[in-house]
Automatic annotation (TrEMBL):
This is DUF2232 domain-containing protein. InterPro entries: DUF2232 (IPR018710). Keywords: Membrane, Transmembrane, Transmembrane helix. PANTHER family: DUF2232 DOMAIN-CONTAINING PROTEIN (PTHR41324:SF1), MEMBRANE PROTEIN-RELATED (PTHR41324). It comes from the Bacteria. It holds the Pfam family DUF2232. The keyword Transmembrane helix applies. The keyword Transmembrane applies.
Amino acid sequence: MYIILSMFVLTLGTVFIPFFSFFAMCVMPVPVVWMYMRATWRETAALAIGAVILTVYWGGSYGGTVETGFFCLSGMIMGFGLRKRRSFFHCWGSGFIVLCAMAAVLAIRLYVVQGVTVFTYVQQFVILWGERLTAMATAQGMGEADKVALQTQLQSLWHTVPYMVPSLLVEIFSLSAWITLRLAIFQLHRQGQKAVSFLPVRCWDMGRGMVYLYIVSLVLKYWGTTRSWIWVQWTGENLLQIAFFFICVQGISFLFSFLQARKKSVVFQGLVLLLFFCIPFFSYIVFVLGLADLLFSYRRNKAVL
């Protein structure tokens, strides 16, 4: 019963609470996974279809309806993987691919119906919010020098943010799939059900392929910049951002294993995450640690784990 109730609340939030809608969609696969582990796939599909129907009935947009459907589908696929005792990486990858397919469907629909690319749409959205921010600053009596500096920063965002959407979505969807599995496995273990064991963050290894991806992205960015190939440049920028993200994950994993080997409290791990998200300079330190760990396999050679 609590599964149906939680699904109802999340669907309600996606339609009527703007600031809660995206968070609710990211969490929506969790009750679907719980349902799949407790019931048949037909009952799970009925739960997902019910959420989609409620979204349409309550006046949800086309995009919101598609997002609800795909997030529920990702939950079903991850639940299927857990039920078949597939590896954590397999379940995470399946959910991640479904969410990427959702983004592709929405982007294609936007281009076919409205005739604009997702990059143009995001740029228009950023410009709109930039104009609102400028108007608010003007109303509060901002000086001319500060206003010029703000305009310069906003123009930089107008030209940068839209083309970084792919890498941003990859990071968001990977985190969404990971959070879904983490919550689902935690609840299943509490209920005494069998599920794949959750690999601790300190044991994660992104693989040396991330180093190669980082090098390729730097080459693409250099070629695009020096030869004025815009799409090559932004492809390199996106790949660079993705590689940077996963190498930072490697760095966090290294720090967690280092702290674990020295019997440090979990509080120190929370402090690492706090510093990573709040202090930009610390993220570069984590990146360097992750890159060094990938290149020299420090944890394997020194038996830090």
